[in-house]
Design goal:
By secondary structure, this protein is mainly α. It contains 13 helices and 5 strands. Strands 1-2-3 form a 3-stranded parallel sheet, with helices on both faces. The N terminus is likely disordered.
């Protein structure tokens, strides 16, 4: 029986844009996990931008130099740095997990007890005020509150990876299903990067892109943008009408403009 395409729904056209094999592959690999990494600048010039990038979902890996905590001359500065970031994350993302990571393990391994000294400093610094800090039990390292690693020597990197993956899997928000229409909407927005665009206007460009892929509803477009903002795919703030009209697809452009 032949079917006229004149009355085909927008969804059917969108479906055709996705190879059926890809959809089947996604179903087979339902347990797979893809992470988007954001590297935040630790310099003070970026502190005022935290509210733009610290979203309420995800996982935060707070990295510090263990040598600075062991050196009496730099210890206070390092503690201030760590406490600032912990408080900032707690303020902007109160329910997400935090993994503490100490670097330069190879440089401090010779002296026995260094790891425990750092652990004691961290526990006294946090004093149970940051329940978000976690080390998943199945990959716990020496009962420490943090992960000591060394990038150069590749020490304990795999343990950190497993911890990050476990934390991500424990986050129930990653199980939220996303419609094919919304994914098509996101793809159409991000594809504008190829045109060297740093941002799009919601009132003109984004609305039209949504209509083109079968998402004409303004409410549905706004919900999709809020979701993708939380997931770190783009930046869309809604506190003012001016900001609401800007959808940033190149975060570096925003950083350069503000700094």
């Amino acid at each position: 029986k032949s079917t006229s395409t004149e009355h085909a729904s927008p969804n059917s056209e969108i479906m055709h844009e996705y190879d059926e094999k890809l959809i089947l592959e996604a179903k087979r690999n339902a347990d797979s996990l893809t992470l988007s990494l954001w590297d935040f600048g630790g310099q003070q010039v970026f502190y005022s931008m935290h509210h733009l990038f610290l979203t309420k979902s995800g996982l935060y890996v707070l990295v510090f130099d263990m040598r600075e905590l062991l050196d009496p001359h730099t210890r206070n500065g390092a503690k201030t740095y760590l406490l600032f970031w912990l408080r900032s994350i707690k303020l902007h993302a109160p329910s997400v997990s935090i993994v503490l990571v100490g670097t330069f393990l190879a440089d401090i391994m010779e002296e026995k007890g260094n790891l425990q000294v750092i652990d004691k400093i961290l526990r006294e610094l946090t004093k149970g005020s940051f329940a978000q800090i976690r080390v998943p039990g199945e990959v716990e390292v020496d009962e420490l509150i943090y992960f000591p690693i060394d990038n150069r020597e590749r020490f304990r990197i795999d343990q950190l990876r497993r911890a990050v993956e476990q934390c991500a899997r424990d986050d129930q928000s990653v199980l939220q299903e996303v419609s094919i229409r919304s994914m098509a909407f996101l793809d159409s927005i991000l594809s504008e990067k190829q045109k060297q665009k740093a941002y799009l206007t919601f009132s003109d460009e984004v609305k039209q892109l949504g209509t083109n892929v079968g998402v004409p509803s303004i409410r549905e477009q706004e919900e999709a943008l809020a979701f993708f903002h939380e997931r770190g795919f783009l930046i869309h703030m809604t506190s003012t009408e001016i900001l609401k009209n800007i959808v940033v697809i190149n975060p570096q452009w925003l950083i350069d403009a503000l700094s």
